[in-house]
């Protein structure tokens, strides 16, 4: 995964982003992905409870 991560970062720099912008964007993407995963897990748990009723 590190190689793919580096490739994305290098492509962003080649497209004109500075390295700090790239790092910030990648952190934001990872954060949003994690928040989405948590929300999906919580929703699945809530739906499971509702289905048992």
Which range does the strand content fall in?
Answer: under 5%
Tell the overall outline: rod-shaped
Annotation field: number of helices: 2
Could you say which structural class the secondary elements and strand pairing correspond to? mainly alpha
Largest sheet: none
The H/E string reads: HH
Number of separate domains: 1
Percent range of helical residues:
over 70%
Q: What distance lies between the first and last C-alpha atoms, to the nearest angstrom?
A: 42 Å
| Count of distinct strands | 0
Compute the average pLDDT. 95
User: What Rg is obtained from the alpha carbons, in whole angstroms?
Assistant: 17 Å
List the uncertain runs: none
Task: Describe the structure in your own words.
- It is rod-shaped and about 55 Å long.
- It has helices spanning 2-14, 19-52.
- Helices cover 89% and strands 0% of the residues.
- It contains two helices and no strands.
- By secondary structure, the protein is mostly helical.
- It has one domain.
């Amino acid at each position: 995964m590190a190689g793919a991560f580096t490739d994305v970062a290098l492509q962003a720099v080649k497209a004109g982003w500075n390295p700090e912008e790239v790092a910030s964007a990648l952190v934001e993407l990872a954060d949003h992905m994690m928040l989405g995963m948590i929300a999906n897990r919580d929703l699945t748990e809530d739906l499971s409870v509702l289905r048992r009723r």
